[in-house]
Write a structure and sequence with these properties.
8-stranded antiparallel barrel; elongated; mainly beta
Length: about 240
């Protein structure tokens, strides 16, 4: 998908240029929904499963015509996972933890609408930039701050108490770049506003693991997340 992205940009720009003489319109609205980190790549010594999170924010669409649009969003966005560590001679502990990262996420996607009826399907693709706000790990039941993946710990058996909250913000890359693709359906009303629902899939192009021990052993984390959103847009 990353290799195809430049070609998608070319197709989008070509469509915009070809239809530049048609009516243009600005739309402003809100969107919100749920997401799941469906994969964060294989990490040593842990098994990760996803948690469902919510996100919400604003959206501005610039419609070049009825078919082509550019959409800018600003979202309060969370990604979460449940990690289970394995007891062995290397890690020295068994436990589990819940890991939540909070971002200001800014997607900028090109949209292609199909048809001219009240209900119109659309597809979208583009980059998304995430600015890390926090990364919090809640350790439970004999775990250590090494779950997930040793982030933030000072040793492999550091004696962290049960039900401890640990700030791992400095162990995560501050800026994450992703490629976002998806599809949706819009309902157009005579007054000009739109209701929409869409689903997107984000491929991270950034290794978010910034913990020195992990970098020394070439450990990496590239989250992949699936998101489902709904919202409303008003002409301005």
């Amino acid at each position: 998908m990353k290799k195809l992205f430049p070609y998608l940009v070319i197709v989008f720009l070509a469509g915009v240029i070809a239809s530049s003489g048609q009516a243009q319109q600005m739309m402003l609205g809100v969107r919100g929904g749920i997401n799941n980190v469906i994969d964060i790549n294989s990490l040593p010594f842990e098994s990760l499963t996803s948690h469902t999170c919510i996100f919400a924010g604003g959206q501005v669409d610039y419609q070049f015509n009825t078919m082509w649009a550019l959409s800018l969003q600003a979202l309060y966005y969370q990604k979460a996972a449940h990690g289970t560590g394995y007891a062995n001679a290397y890690t020295g502990y068994r436990g589990y933890a819940d890991w939540t990262m909070t971002y200001l996420e800014i997607p900028l996607v090109g949209k292609v609408n199909f048809g001219h009826s009240i209900i119109r399907p659309y597809i979208f693709a583009g980059p998304s930039f995430g600015v890390l706000l926090s990364s919090i790990e809640k350790v439970h039941t004999g775990g250590g701050s090494g779950i997930p993946n040793g982030l933030g710990n000072t040793s492999h058996n550091d004696g962290i108490k049960n039900d401890t909250t640990i700030n791992l913000t400095n162990s995560i890359t501050k800026i994450e770049y992703s490629i976002l693709v998806g599809a949706g359906i819009s309902v157009f009303f005579a007054s000009g506003f739109q209701l929409f629902v869409d689903a997107g899939y984000a491929f991270s192009a950034t290794n978010i693991d910034n913990y020195p021990w992990d970098k020394a052993y070439s450990t990496y984390e590239y989250p992949l997340d699936l998101r489902l959103a709904t919202g409303v847009l008003f002409p301005i």
